């Protein structure tokens, strides 16, 4: 069975973006040692233009072949004319407000996210990457098998949280930690067996 992984950048205080969706404060932490590791371990989690710019456009997908994102995560690319941000993956945007896809390579659906993920998990293939955002992650929390947190050593004080969900503790086990020169780290958690 395929797994759903929430791989996302986050601040020390638990935000994936600022109050208005800004995320430029993560850029200073994209250091050479971090990027070298990230390109080797998660090449498919880089945008198609980013992969081309870094010389890994043809890198094989290692962990994921499908990406899920909410409208808020998809919109910044649309705003700059990038209608297919992850052309090397099956791209699914879950949205109730975007009714038609601006690109034939991107599926747009208003389907229940949990039902969609359960169906995707039954299909053959690599893992499923939940790219964001907080509302979608909150809805999919019962289906998330793994958290891959790219934590930058920065505080922002307010913004879009890692999850927007009702209170309900869920246990995850720390499976891997990778620390980088500037203090950023990648933390990988797996759902704790019930």
UniProtKB/TrEMBL annotation:
GO molecular function ontology, one term from the record: 5-amino-6-(5-phosphoribosylamino)uracil reductase activity
Protein name listed in UniProt: Dihydrofolate reductase
Pfam families listed in its UniProt record: RibD_C
Taxonomic lineage of the native organism: Bacteria, Bacillati, Actinomycetota, Actinomycetes, Kitasatosporales
GO biological process: riboflavin biosynthetic process
Positions of the Bacterial bifunctional deaminase-reductase C-terminal domain: 6-183
């Amino acid at each position: 069975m395929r797994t759903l992984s929430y791989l996302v950048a986050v601040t020390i205080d638990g935000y994936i973006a600022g109050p208005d969706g800004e995320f430029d404060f993560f850029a200073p932490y994209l250091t050479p040692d971090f990027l070298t590791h990230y390109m080797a371990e998660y090449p498919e989690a880089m945008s198609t233009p980013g992969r081309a710019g870094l010389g890994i456009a043809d890198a094989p997908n290692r962990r994921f072949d499908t990406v899920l994102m909410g409208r808020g995560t998809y919109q910044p690319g649309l705003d700059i004319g990038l209608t297919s941000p992850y052309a090397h993956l099956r791209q699914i945007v879950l949205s109730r407000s975007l009714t038609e896809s601006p690109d034939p390579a991107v599926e747009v659906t208003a389907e229940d996210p949990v039902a969609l993920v359960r169906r995707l998990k039954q299909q053959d293939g690599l893992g499923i990457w939940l790219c964001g955002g907080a509302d979608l992650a909150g809805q999919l929390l019962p289906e998330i098998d793994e958290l891959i947190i790219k934590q930058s050593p920065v505080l922002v004080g307010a913004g879009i949280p890692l999850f927007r969900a009702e209170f309900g503790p869920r246990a995850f086990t720390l499976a891997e930690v990778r620390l980088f020169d500037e203090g950023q780290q990648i933390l990988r958690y797996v759902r704790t067996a019930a």
